[in-house]
Each structure stands twice: as structure tokens, then as C-alpha cells.
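Researcher: First entry.
Model:
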Amino acid sequence: MGRVEPAGQEKMSKILTDFAEPMIKSAKGEAKIREIIALAVVAWNISLSREWAQMPKTLAYIASLSPEMREMLAMLLERRNRVYPTVRRLIMDYEVVRETGAYRLNVASVNFDAKLPPPA
């Protein structure tokens, strides 16, 4: 994941970290942090397209969430649309890297408005 962000654009790893921060602050343990980041990625991507939000894989994922995580998903979707309405980048891949006492994200993203095939 050695990509460089286009000139003038904030790094998507920073945006995703800031986006998920309110939920991460209350997380207990590494597994919960990773679960919240995965949820934040799903929330981010489905907020870009109603079509993607209605895909069977997405619907199955949402159905598998606990009530607590569904509530968190709703909060993330609201936050995404309120705080980042003009950031139209699709998260293609991400990696959570544990560092001494902290976590760092590596994120690969593309401009969502570019012609991309729908996910499989």
C-alpha cells in the first residue's frame, strides 16, 4: 500500500482515523478497535452509493451485526454525510498496523466518481 495521495487531498488514512475516532475512543481492546475500523470502512463505502448499500453482501453483513454495532453504523453514516459530504473516495483496501501503544491505518482509495465496476 505505497500509494501517494493526489496533490491537495488529505490522506485517506487520516480521514478514516478521524471519522472513526469517536467510536474508537470507547473501544476496549484490539479486536474491538479492528471491528470498529471495519465497520467505519463499510459505512464510508456504502454512503457513497445506494446501489452498493443494497447489495446482498452488504445487506448480509448488516444483518449479522449486533444491535450495538447497527447503532454505531447508523451514527457513522450520519457522521459521514455531515462531516465529509464532499470527500468522494472509495476505500479499496486498508490495514491496521499496531505500533507501540497505538494503531496506524494504511488506506488505499480511489476517486469514487471514476468509472469503476460494481463490487462482486
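Researcher: Second entry.
Model:
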Amino acid sequence: MTAPIYTKTILDNLSTVEQWIADGATFFVGHSGGKDSQALYAVIKSWVPADQIVVVHADLGDVEWDGIQDHIKANIQHPLNVVEATPYKDGTPKTLLERIDRNHRRLVAAGRNVNPWPDNNNRFCTGELKTDPIWKYIRHHPAKIAINCVGIRAEESTRRSKANPLKINKKNTCSDRVQRAAFDFYPIFDLFEIDVWNIIAADGQKRHHAYDDGNDRLSCKFCVFGSPGDWQNAARHDPALYAWYVEAEKRYGFTIKQDKPIEEWVGIRVEDLDPTPPGLTTDAEVAQLDNDTSTGETDGEEEAQEPVQPAPAEQGAEDDHRQQEGEEDEGLRRRSTPALTKIALLAVAYAPSHGGKKLRHFIDFYPDLSEAEAVAVRAQRNRIDRLRAKRYRRRCNNGDPLLLARSSRPFRTPTAIAAAAAETQARRDRIERDLERSRRAEQHAVDTRKTLLAAARTARSLGFKVRSSSNHSGRVSSYYCTRDGQGFRISDHEIPWTAQRQSNAQFHGGRDFNGYHGDQLIIDGHHTATWLRRAITLTAAGRAVPGAA
């Protein structure tokens, strides 16, 4: 394990977490590949032994970002367990698109004019495609104590800020045939976004390229809770899936965002998108395309290819670049290979949402690019970096000086680490003292009960008639002993010989209804048999017992 990463949620529940670890609980880390999941894994890994961690990923199918599982595997030190939703009874895979379409058909058949898209009040996308498959995996796991760790943060929304970061999951806790205690735990609940990024960087993890491309969050490509920027980025990566959402919205008659159609809200029309995803995703694709365009053959006579003309916005960017460089850039229109020309144009046109990772492919794998093309690509990449940094600062700080100071402070300074360690040690010392007091009190109560029973047996052996009396919990706490007009009480608690008892005793020849004269032998702790015999004899005679309570 690495050095513990302290969060407020961990410290508030430190004794519980340590008890879980000591009891051999299994911590199931739900990993979506996003920033919160990466920070969650780093925090859990810093506290929990490696053999008590299980990483689970819910496969979302077509709506999941390409390469997300490879990204997760590259940033964790545990095997990745991939789960998916249970198929429908007819054998159809349960995907998000199929679930939305079936929801629409069900509502129409029922005559209900209701929006079929998931929303805050009906998040079946999360519940049925993520939460349920993960809990199904946990239920089939032999863990007796199951901790479902989720990367939920209070900063994300008002609703999430009201959640309880540690609670028992009653639905998946059972005590009959399969004994299992199940809990939901949000270890990074109190962290800010800047803390999440700091934890990821300190742990040596790499973030998903969608964040470099401008995404605010990483879940489904077209998450109903995503921002317009997220949808723009996803639309350029997967135009076909974007077209499905646009067509489905028109077919259902309901908008996802309730107020605007997708194309108006996102700002991109389907017909404006190129069916070929802009840029290349992997190095293998780049090398394959380079090989195809350089060695490809044509059937018959090669047809003349018209150069691809840039869009007006692209033409304006080129004009600005020509003014700055003082030379005319003809490379983007005069490439001998048409496919390479298209790649270069797309790189310049779509750079603001695709970031530097895609643009570097053109420089790294196409060293024969003209100098003007390389300069144009680098200029776009630098512009993206500046805009992204500015937007990131605005989003993180929001103009709040306190948040600005928080984002600029060093993460986990030595002073903060020492203070947290001292607080943790003090908490552990208090817990150990409380446990020791509890153990002593419990042992003392056991000794007292054993001695009380031994006293009753000793009284019987001395010829006393013994009657027992129980307390409210049903445990015998007193014995009343009588012999030849002598009577006394043996108990673990004292009852005073009140005036009412004395008045009642006048009707019983000086004794109460139990034959109790008022003499008492109070047992507190452990005593020997010799001491008990002597104490009973003295008490019966109405004399004080040395060493009695």
C-alpha cells in the first residue's frame, strides 16, 4: 500500500474503515474510467490491502467511449472484472439505446404521453446498466462484508451533496442462507475537482483522452447530464450515434433537455458532420492509413481528384496564418494524397474539441508534412491549450477567492500530513481506551454474576431457604434467604430499607413478604468461597461484613 490519502469522509469514519479491514471486508471499486473513479481507486488503494480490493467495470456497449477498458487496465494494479446488464427475456442485449426505445414503446402502448428519456427523477440508465450489474456481481462473490465504493462527490450537484457517504445497503444485506453485510461508501465525497486531479497526478495515473479533448465528465458518450461541449466532442467522435439521438428525439416527440432540440442545444447539425471520425484514435490506425494511402492501387485508369476545399472558418484561419508567417500556405490544398489532405484539414478544423493528442499524430507519423502544415497544426494545438487552461481555471475557481486559494495550495503538504497523522493517532488512542474500559466493565459484570450464583449455592448449603428475583431483562439479580426467623438479601445492587418496607414488615412478623429483615449482602466483583461462607453467616446474624460492597 502507498501512503494513506486522507479525506474528510475517511477520517470521519476511520474506526469503521479500520474495523472493516481487520474483519477481512472486500472493497468493490466501481470504475467507469472517469476522473472520480481514478481518484477513488487511488484513495482505496492507499488504505486497503491489495487482496481485499476488487475492481468492477459496467460495460455500457455502444454508448461507451472507445478504449475505456484498456484505459482502466493501464491505470490499476488489479484485474478488471467487466460486467454487463442481464439481457431481456427474448435474448436481446440490454443496452441503453434498446432500453430507451423499449421505454418509449411501453409508454405509447399504455397511452401515456410521457418523456421516455432518462432524467434526474428517472435515472434508469445508471440504475439498470451500472448499479444493478455491479451489485449482481457482488452478490455472487463470497465476501461476507461487501463495501460498494462509489466515486460520488458532493460538489457535483445539490442532490448528491445531501447524500449519506456511508450507509448500509439493506437490499443486499442478508442473514439467512447467505450471510452478507453490504454497505455503500463514498470515500471521496468531500473532495473538490482540483483535489481529484491532484490525487490522480500524485498516484501516477493517466487521464482519459476525452478530458484532453475538452470533456467535463466521462460516462456515456452522450450522457443526458453532460454539457454541450461533451456532446460536441462525442458527436465528432461518433457521428452515427449522434444521428441516432437526433432521429430518436424527433421520433419520440420529446427532447432530451426539455427545452431545445439536440441540434440546437449542441450547436451541431448532423449533415454538418463528416461520417469519418476526425483524426485518428490509435497509432495502429494512423500507421494503417499511412500504409493504405502510400501503397494503395486503383482499378483501371486513376481518376483525377479534386482538392478538398476548406470551410469558410478554416479559410479564415488559414488567411490569418498567412499574414503571420508572411507566406502562402498551399500545403493543405496541394497534397498529392487526397486522404492525407482530408486528415490535415480535419486536424485544423476539429482541433478545438479534439485537443493535442490527436494533432500530435500528424506530426509524429507524417514527417513529410510541409512546414506550413506542421506550423498550422502546432498553432491550433497551442490555442487549444490556452483556451482549455482558461476554461479549466474558470470552472474550478468560479471567481471565488477561497476556491482559488484552495486550487493553488500544494496538495498534502508535510504540515497537513503531520496534522492528519496526529489526529489519526489521537483518535486511535481514544478508541483503544474506550475498548479497554468496555472490556473491563464486561469482565467485572461476568465475575459479579458468577459470585452471586456461588453465594446462593453457599446459602443453600448452610440451610437457608433461597428464593430468586429477576430484573426487567429477565436475569436473576437478587436472592432472598430465610432460616429460623433470620432473613437477608444477596444481590448485585442495593435497595434501601425504606419506611414503606418497614410498615409492610409489621404485618409479616418483622419481615417483608420475601422474609427480608433489611440486612443485605451486596456482591460486586469476584470473591472466594471462604469469604462468601463467612459473609453469609455474619449477614444472617445482622453484623457488618468486612470488605463487602
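Model: Note on the second entry: The first strand starts at residue 26 and ends at 30.
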